[in-house]
């Protein structure tokens, strides 16, 4: 029997006996599993009114609210579950995740440490603890816990990714590059790793490797507007106008236009095609709210372009 068929069966049984808490609980868990959050919430709220001392109901309410991005209510439900059963480790862990979402990093850290007191070999909890430290800008504790994550599970690409970013933050480019390369060994289509490698190579002045990694970024994520923009600027720096024009045109085909991307297109087409140059300047002005340079300066440039022979 499929899960959808099981849901239908449980709903029919509940019509016959709406007071059957076990059936309603089973239905709520299945609804959560299938992503029917509103329906799951209704059933769990109904259960909570008649089972106010059941930690499992409040735990599942926390899960539903978390899935619905209502983190304040999720926090309330997990705290209620822990009030009923203080040793409820799953609720403690999920509460830590919710605290992290709410940017309440110190209580999040306390939650994850409490979970690790029960199981010191849980790579997911070390990662979540590292992330809470990272978001609180405590990079030394963050890297320590990300390292513990990969000591247990060396294939955790996100732990490697955050370690790489910390090395990058500290200015250790070689160590950062090694970690980003490790990420790509684990997941060759992870576009952010290519983008960060490009950023480092660009900073180091290695424009060929910067371009190579930006191209890979776009290949893996054709919606990455920033990668297109940086690659276009690198081509413009080299006066490779045809490559610049193609890159920014691809960007405008894949992503919604902004003032800045239209202006970059104008710069790419300026030596190639006057009409395209003028057209993109006009579009940059139309999208003035996302244009970094002063609108009047672009208007002046447009007027000058129209005066060309």
Count the DSSP helices: 18
End-to-end gap: 75 Å
Q: How confident overall, as mean pLDDT?
A: 94
* Topology pattern, helix = H, strand = E: HHHHHHHHHHHHHHHHHH
Structural class: mainly alpha
Largest sheet: none
Describe, in plain words, how this protein is organized in 3D.
This protein is an all-alpha fold. Helix content is 78%, strand content 0%. It has 18 helices and no strands. It has helices spanning 3-16, 21-33, 37-50, 55-67, 71-84, 89-101, 105-118, 123-135, 139-152, 157-170, 173-186, 191-204, 207-220, 225-237, 241-254, 259-269, 274-286, 295-306. The radius of gyration is 26 Å and the shape is elongated. The model has no long low-confidence stretch (mean pLDDT 94).
Explain the layout of strands and helices.
Layout (H helix, E strand, L loop, with lengths): L2 H14 L4 H13 L3 H14 L4 H13 L3 H14 L4 H13 L3 H14 L4 H13 L3 H14 L4 H14 L2 H14 L4 H14 L2 H14 L4 H13 L3 H14 L4 H11 L4 H13 L8 H12 L3
